[in-house]
Amino acid sequence: MKKLWTAALLCALLGANATAQERSFGTLPMGQKAGARPTSAQSKMEKSPKYLHALAIYNKLVAARGDTRFPVPAFSMKKEERQVAYIDYDVPEITLEEKAYDICMGLDADTSVSQAALAFLLSHELTHYYEKHAWRSSFAWDSKNLDLDITKKLRVDTLIDAAANETEADYLGGFLAYSAGYGLFDKGVLILDKLHSTYPLDTLAEGYPSLADRRALSKKSAEKLTRLIEVFDMANMLTAIGNYSEAYAYYRYVLNEYQSREIYNNLGVTACLDAMQYFNPGELKYRYPLELDLNVSGRKGNDGMGNNRVKLLRQAILHFDAAISLDNTYGPAYLNKACAYALLGDKTRASFYAAVEAKTEHIKKHYPNSFADVDVLLGILAAQDNKPEEATKFFQSAWAAGRTLGDTNLKIMNEVPLEADPEGMSSSRKVEKIDSLSLSKVIESVNYDPKKIVTIQKNLLFKQNPKQGAQSKLWFSENNQTGKITYFHTTNAGYTQKTARGIGVGNTRADIAKAYGEPDKTYPTPLGEIMVYPKTLFIIGNKGQLERWVNYLVEE
């Protein structure tokens, strides 16, 4: 059976003297360990601790990709030293060699870095598969197509494609690893050097880039990946503070580079939240379960505002449909689609997507929060139909499942006053400073690096000063159409100073809530959550501890 071997992390390891069956068609090979030969099926390390650890990371990456349109490649680990990692497209199956696993796990004393290295290596292979990097070369090298004139040209083009495919697999694979919660991994060059010095590898075939060139490509991929993650982080922060229209544009920028159900879903949610600003204050009595900011002030619903909100909500539905098309078991998209229809006043469709599509056993098992939030929406629909007893049952069911919106909407329906904001969130609190500067002082003299400007869309620019202070940086979104500038002054990793209330890196979420009160809203991220307070965001990592915080300010 012909195998189309692919490289992991710019490291497909087939040599110039490899057999025709082992040619790397889909990606660019780098060489093969001298004298290495395939091993038997008995070399598979099924159920070993190393295999189970790598499998858990692999499954997390597959879940983060969230694309069920294609069969998920099987995963195996083998006791061999010849290919590092490769994919058999015919099965399909991705194989990781034990030695490659050991190299990744020994990369750094910090286990999170080692796991990120392994995640990056595996996500590289998954990206080759999902981006269909082998389709052209598979056609070109198929013996059935040898009589076609186009075959010769395609065989030449595959060498050009391979370099681009490897770079893209590093870039998009890196974002996949990030979205799965493994953080930014920018040590591709280090992995590359470790693999070359440990295996070791044969020299490259004529026409292939040198190791130095591949190291340079890896560095460029890391730079591009960093930029994409920064845009994604900016979208998260803009959403957290309620700047939904600009957040939508930032997510769209990411979507142009990387498609996943979560990105489509985020686009839909921000479109819905943006649309809710075009309702009159009295039109949104209840709190919908897709909301990030539950305190919508509202704009006047005239002068075409109604048309704007309808357009945004219908666009949101298209985004939710796109997420569902990637994964028809993705619970949040069904719930959010139902909310969008409810906001459009289409109760029939809202009820169907909530009560039927989102109330499945799969969603109950894999998305329990979404499953419980369905009751919140069904309660809202019942309350709007003047069925208080039915609404009460739904709200109480959601509240019993730990969803606070159930209790909140029950109080709204029964006209029970909601609790006031915690004292710690009042505007009278001390002025927060980062690197001994308040943000109002920082923007008196704004500097930015012109090399780091990202044009999000025609009149929307993402600018940054990566060295605003000794331990901080400044990001800002400049909207030249509205004249609004949104500033975020953020601490760097390992920031050593404290906030005005004595909170520092490493403090827990509970510590923050004790010092500042519970936030009025939180926003989930791939690595944790954002706690949102007036003028300050606290970024919580996947260990439940504070990693950095951000002071923000909007200048009209």
Report on this structure.
The structure is a single chain. The protein is an alpha+beta fold and 556 residues long. The chain contains 18 helices and eleven strands. The protein has helices spanning 49-65, 98-105, 111-130, 135-140, 149-182, 188-198, 211-240, 244-257, 261-276, 305-326, 331-343, 347-357, 361-366, 368-384, 388-400, 404-413, 439-442, 509-516; strands at 74-78, 85-88, 93-97, 454-457, 460-469, 472-479, 485-491, 521-525, 528-533, 536-540, 546-555. The chain has an eight-stranded antiparallel beta sheet with strand order 4-5-6-7-11-10-9-8, sandwiched between helices. Strands 1-3-2 form a three-stranded mixed beta sheet. Helix 6 runs antiparallel to helix 7 (211-240), helix 9 runs antiparallel to helix 10 (305-326) and helix 14 (368-384) packs parallel to helix 16. The chain is globular, with a radius of gyration of 26 Å. 43% of the residues are buried. Residues 1-32, 139-143, 203-208, 291-303 and 421-428 have low confidence and may be disordered.
What structural category characterises the helix and strand content? alpha+beta
- Average pLDDT figure: 81
Order of helices and strands: HEEEHHHHHHHHHHHHHHHHEEEEHEEEE
Report the uncertain regions: 1-32, 139-143, 203-208, 291-303, 421-428
Straight-line N-to-C gap: 64 Å
The coarse overall form would be globular
Per DSSP, what share of the residues sits in E-state strands of 2 or more residues?
A: 5-15%
Tally of DSSP β-strands: 11
The major sheet is characterized as: 8 strands, antiparallel
- Looking across the biggest beta sheet, what order are the strands in? 4-5-6-7-11-10-9-8
Estimate the helix proportion, in percent.
Answer: 40-55%
Quaternary organisation of the protein chains: single chain
Radius of gyration: 26 Å
Total tally of structural domains = 3
Helix count equals 18
